[in-house]
Amino acid sequence: MLNRTRRGTVQRTGTRTLGAAEGVLVALCGCSLDDAFLELIAAAKNHNVDAMTLAATVVALAEDPSGYECDEAAVRAATIAWEPLVRRRIVASESDSDDPASLLER
What ranges make up the beta strands (E) of 1-106? Predict the structure, then answer.
């Protein structure tokens, strides 16, 4: 089920959010879907953050690396857990090139 917020953005259900976060981690880490799930749960436990909040934050950071609407503790956990990958994603998003192939070269 999708819900629209006041700003017109779509809120995903927990299952969709978790699946999207797993997909982000698979793409960032090059791991399996099962490993992405385990990594997400371990990071949540290690940083004392709710797993679903961390999953939503991972998705939000993938969509907008500024993370301005995310839970601060979850942003911190994601940054610590996947900092090199998150940083690479931020640098890629700041690229002025519109050529998608140039992002793969980073």
Answer: 3-4, 10-11
* Residues 6+ positions from 56 with CB-CB distance below 8 Å: 12, 17, 21, 70, 71, 74
pLDDT in tens, 52-76: 999 999 998 888 777 667 899 999 9
User: Which residue has better confidence, 40 or 104?
Assistant: 40
Please state the domain count of the chain. Answer: 1
The proportion of the chain whose per-residue pLDDT surpasses 70, expressed as a percent, equals 66
DSSP 3-state percent helix, strand, coil across the chain (nearest 5): 65, 5, 30
- Please state whether 48 falls in left (phi above 0), alpha (psi between -120 and 50) or beta: left
Residue 94 lies in domain: 3-104
